[in-house]
Amino acid sequence: MSSSVMPTSKIGSPPVSAVSATGLRKSYGEKVVLDGIDLDIPTGSVFALLGPNGAGKTTAVKILSTLITPDDGRATIAGHDLATEAQAVRAAIGVTGQFSAVDGLITGEENMLLMADLHHLPRREGQRTVAELLERFDLTEAAKKPAQSYSGGMKRRLDIAMTLVGAPRIIFLDEPTTGLDPRSRHNMWQIIRQLVSGGVTVFLTTQYLEEADELAHRIAVLNDGRIAAQGTAEELKRLIPGGHIRLRFTDPTAYQNAAAALRETTRDDEALTLQLPSDGSQRELRSILDWLDSAGIEADELTVHTPDLDDVFFALTGAGVAGRTGGESKEDVR
């Protein structure tokens, strides 16, 4: 996950929270899809909503993008009340779903110009905006070709470029890399990072845990219509037991001395390694290093292992997962 300082929006003077929701509920008959979720998403950040199929991710996106109304709860989007200022909310957001909205029978450029017309941009301004976005998304050479001839990655780039014609401050990306090959997925990640560096807030739903780990400043895990946990990727990983520090030695004497002195260790006498339970915190790591130094014991290698997002996802939802990722933990969850 990116460790860079969270960017500040360059568009006017936006509210501190791009999206704020309290107690959102939605049911279809007896099926409760959202059961009172709370969200607070800072401006100029990537927020990832994870959850198994049917958890309510797409319903949350539809509510926050004014496509459907909640049964209860309230929300503000870009400083506008969702219930009373829906038109202002629509003017501030863009939405890209997992299924492309691109019209394959017309060219990429024509798709873009159609969006410019829908946003009532003056003709010259619309043409300039379209040309800039086609270049930005590396679609200039393909602009005159029918969109149905585009690869999956190109169609997804065109889809997001179309969303940006209206200069939204908040973009909802509902599983934007579903079906893309690894190269196209990584290209999409770079596009998302560039959007955020320009001050755009991205609300991302995904089943790829690596994607959330790479992109999101904050992550929420949705299960059975409720937020099971939320925080940074590192914070969420600290929720799950199993973290440890592994010390490897090449000097058998140093290994034996450390094994005799350290408590609660798992020994591997053949590999000369010791494994200590750890939450991976900086304070705990420093304590072990200070102890080794004071005892005059030198470990040849020290590695910190924490549960990954797969472990977190499975523990919180009991569901299978689609991606593999890893990381280290630093902070506590709020």
Description of the structure:
- The strands form 3 sheets. The protein has a 6-stranded mixed beta sheet with strand order 6-7-8-3-9-10, with helices on both faces. Strands 2-1-4-5 form a 4-stranded antiparallel beta sheet, covered by helices on one side.
- Helices cover 34% and strands 24% of the residues.
- It has 11 helices and 14 strands.
- With 334 residues, it is an alpha/beta fold.
- It folds into 2 domains: 17-232, Rossmann fold (3-Layer(aba) Sandwich); 244-305, 2-Layer Sandwich (Alpha-Beta Plaits), CATH 3.30.70.
- It has helices at 57-64, 86-92, 108-118, 123-136, 152-164, 182-197, 209-215, 233-237, 252-261, 282-294, 309-317, and strands at 17-28, 31-42, 46-50, 72-77, 80-81, 93-96, 170-174, 201-205, 218-223, 226-231, 244-248, 266-268, 273-277, 301-305.
- α3 crosses α4 and α3 packs parallel to α5 (152-164).
- A hairpin with a 4-residue loop joins β12 (266-268) and β13.
- Mean pLDDT is 85; it is low at 1-14 and 320-334.
Features:
11 helices, 2 domains, four-stranded antiparallel sheet, alpha/beta, six-stranded mixed sheet, Alpha-Beta Plaits, disordered N terminus
